[in-house]
Amino acid sequence: MFEEILKWVGSVLASTAVFGIVVYLMRSTLTKLIGKSIEHRFDKKIESFKAEIRGNEKEFEQIRAFMGSIRKERDSTLQAKRFEAAETLMRQRQFLGQFTMLVEYVKMLNMEEILKNRNDPQIAKFIKALTDPVDIDEKLKIYGTFDRTMTDLYLSERIKKLFETYQYIMLNAVMIMKILSLPNLDINPDLFKKDSIKNMVIELAPLSKEGFDQFGDSYAFHWTNYFYTEILTELRNELLGITSMSKDTEAATQLALDSRRAQISLHAIFEKSGLSEDLIKSDAR
Q1: Rounded distance, CA 134 to CA 210, Å?
Q2: pLDDT tens series, the chain, 285 aa
Q3: Can you name the residues that pair with 280 across neighbouring β-strands?
Q4: How far apart are CA 69 and CA 80, in angstroms?
Q5: How far apart are CA 96 and CA 94, in angstroms?
Q6: Angle, vertex CA 148, rays to CA 157 and CA 143, nearest 5
Q7: What's the number of CA atoms in the CB half-sphere (13 Å) around residue 35?
């Protein structure tokens, strides 16, 4: 009986050992199989992720190319608009240059003496002879048709200020000569005192302040050539060189000729009038 029990126990132990070995071997095999399965799935996930990244990179590249194209097109359009605005401003500047003779008259005439003796028919005739050839009314009518939308939208603040100052000086000269040419019109002498025009010039050309302190507000009319030239210089700087403005040399030459012609014209008309030399500033005689 005892021997049978020992045999049974021995067989059980043997079976358990075998079972343990089998379980161990199976666990090792299962572990390898599960590991390979996980590795395979992981590799598939990695490949899928890489493919997704490559797809996204292509999509991002397309987006970058599209945005670059849009930006280039926008910059090209904006630059074209700037050129158009610059050309519009140049036409306005050159048109205002036709009033250069009137600016020269204002610079040379002694306004205090003219206002003091304004009721003299000879003075009225003298002023009329100076202003009639310029045809102020017709030119102002034409100038009013210029469209300033492009210049306001696409040019820098400095360029706009330079032009506004130049325009203000020129139109002030036009207004002064126009008023003097109107008979029987009471004129306030303070009309020729222009703090606003002085401040505009000093803001853009600080070195002019000393001249204003010495010569008064009328000194602004001596800065027309500076602003005429500075507008072009600033435009070229902003637009990186504009070759389409090659005709400006001709316009500048015409401006100088108009200035000289004004001096000759004033003296010629003045000599015929028989008026006192006090009507012309001493440095312009």
Answers
A1: 32
A2: 545 544 544 554 445 544 455 445 455 555 565 556 665 665 666 666 566 666 666 655 655 554 555 555 656 788 888 889 999 999 999 999 999 999 999 888 888 888 887 778 888 888 888 899 999 999 999 999 999 998 998 999 999 999 999 999 999 999 999 988 887 777 776 666 677 888 999 999 998 888 888 888 888 998 998 999 999 888 888 876 544 444 445 554 555 555 566 666 666 776 676 666 666 776 655
A3: 109
A4: 16
A5: 5
A6: 125
A7: 6
